[in-house]
Design a protein that fits this description.
This protein is mainly beta and about 110 residues long. Helices cover about 0% and strands about 50% of the residues.
Length: about 110
């Protein structure tokens, strides 16, 4: 899944979700369930039910991609997926209308 409503400027993002690996051949899933990436910048080696606070999003990267890391053996259900990104303001910026992006999706 991809989300394209992130702010252009550098930002900090909070992302949370619950993940469940399922499938007939997926009795004991190993490793991380999903990968979270802003264009070319990924969060570590993957996540299981992420609860990420203030992850830095580089300027110019406007797409958040969620990828199943068990694609060859398991399905992954992502439940209660939410994200919110707030641009990093310079100390002199007090713009009350600054762009904030977020998404809440229940699957």
């Amino acid at each position: 899944a991809q989300f394209h409503d992130l702010p252009e400027n550098a930002a900090t993002c909070n992302i949370s979700a619950s993940t469940v690996a399922t499938g007939a051949t997926c009795w004991f899933p190993e490793g991380q369930d999903i990968s979270l990436c802003f264009d070319q910048t990924c969060h570590g080696q993957g996540d299981i039910s992420p609860d990420i606070i203030k992850w830095g999003k580089p300027r110019g990267e406007k797409t958040l991609t969620v990828t199943n890391l068990h694609v060859s053996t398991c399905n992954v259900h992502v439940l209660s997926f939410m994200y919110c990104c707030e641009p990093i303001r310079s100390p002199v910026s007090k713009d009350p209308d600054a762009e904030i992006a977020g998404h809440e999706q229940f699957i």
